[in-house]
Q: What sequence folds into this?
């Protein structure tokens, strides 16, 4: 994808997420790899509702800022995924989306596997979603916690904060994030009710058939 097209695609997806209430105020950030091994990143303090493709932060392949506005302060989260997952990470999406944040705070949530096995799609797109502890904004330990996963997870939820999802392409990262939020919404809707979840065998078959991390 040309850089011009990638810039437009980042802003289009951000606007779509904003318009559907998945991002509010100036929360959320997106990064994506450019063809030359650099990165485009949404700027600090910017709203997903009105990003300017020309002002996205541009890094070269050595991680040096070479253009655009200052990047999101949550850049260490993004860098941690790129550094530990290699070519499996072509984009990273982070939101403060309602249901994922809610799920991170419920006492019954399994912090090693936060999404109950309701549908095959969340398992196929996200694998097991880890809940990481709460970190104060700007704490570098946030990125360190992702590095400690050693590239084994493509999706995490920062407790009392929000989800971070990575995938090989921007499109698949956004769709996986949407799947995470929808599954979290199901979990909240069905909380404290008796539910017919997928069985352990059905989950195992999915993991085998789709070669899931
Ligand atoms: Zn955040």
A:
């Amino acid at each position: 994808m040309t850089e011009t097209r990638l810039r437009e695609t980042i802003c289009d997806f951000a606007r779509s997420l904003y318009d559907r209430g998945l991002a509010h105020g100036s929360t959320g950030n997106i990064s994506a790899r450019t063809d030359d091994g650099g990165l485009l990143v949404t700027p600090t303090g910017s709203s997903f509702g009105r990003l300017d493709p020309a002002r996205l932060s541009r890094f070269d392949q050595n991680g040096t800022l070479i253009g655009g506005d200052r990047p999101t302060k949550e850049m260490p989260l993004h860098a941690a995924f790129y550094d530990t997952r290699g070519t499996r990470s072509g984009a990273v999406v982070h939101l403060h989306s309602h249901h994922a944040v809610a799920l991170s705070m419920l006492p019954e949530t399994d912090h090693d596997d936060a999404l109950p096995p309701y549908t095959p799609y969340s398992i196929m797109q996200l694998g097991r979603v880890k809940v990481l502890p709460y970190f104060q904004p700007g704490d570098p330990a946030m990125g360190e916690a992702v590095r400690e996963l050693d590239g084994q997870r493509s999706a995490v939820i920062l407790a009392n904060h929000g989800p971070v999802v990575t995938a090989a392409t921007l499109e698949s990262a956004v769709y996986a994030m949407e799947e995470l939020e929808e599954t979290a919404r199901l979990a909240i809707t069905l909380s404290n009710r008796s539910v017919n979840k997928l069985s352990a065998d059905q989950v195992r078959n999915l993991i085998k058939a789709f070669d899931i991390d």
Q: What stands out?
A: Helices lie at 3-19, 75-85, 98-105, 120-126, 141-147, 170-189, 200-209. The radius of gyration is 17 Å.
